[in-house]
Amino acid sequence: MKTSPIKIFKEWYKEELDLTQVRIPTAVCLSTHGTDEFPNARFVSLKEIINDAFIITGPLNSLKGIEIAKDNHVALTFWWTETERQIRVQGIARKIPERLADKYFHERDIYSKIVSSICEQGKETKDAKLLEQEIQQRVSRKEMVDRPEDWGGFSIDPVRIEFLEFKASRFHDRKLFELENGKWKGKQIQP
């Protein structure tokens, strides 16, 4: 198999985006090694692919940020209902540069910016209503919000990418690409 898995990903991604009606078509499940020895998974939004790396963003002091700082071996799982395809990516996560974090933060809507500047994602709150009121007040004042120091993102360099196309016969088409000595090696695998 000579085809680049990144090229396949981009083609499949475009096909799904062209067909989908879901509200957040960029959603992807990010899995990390939990600090409590359990795997941890949550949905994040794929921002783009830069230099063949998958870009995600969020608070660096959140549980996902803490877990990635401890062990940067992560997995991404895409499930696309319209095209009935799944893509699994395993890779190494690294913090994105500050200028890129600034760019992604600037692109967010005011509500998202204010939530990120006030909230400590995943931490306990004594009064959620009070916190929500503060956010609403700041949104209504249309406050300018700078990117918090603990907000950034990760660039995930893939080392393994598996493509699965579901078939009604259950004889699913699966291809696995693994990075070996800087080159992608692909093989067909059983369903």
UniProtKB/TrEMBL annotation:
Pyridoxamine 5'-phosphate oxidase N-terminal domain location: 24-137
Domain of life the protein comes from: Bacteria
Keywords of the record: Flavoprotein, FMN, Oxidoreductase
Cofactor: FMN
Molecular-function GO terms, alphabetical: pyridoxamine phosphate oxidase activity
Catalytic activity, EC: 1.4.3.5
InterPro entries: Pyridox_Oxase, Pyridox_Oxase_N, Pyridoxamine_oxidase_dimer_C, Split_barrel_FMN-bd
Broad EC category: oxidoreductase
Family per similarity comment: Belongs to the pyridoxamine 5'-phosphate oxidase family.
Protein known as: Pyridoxal 5'-phosphate synthase
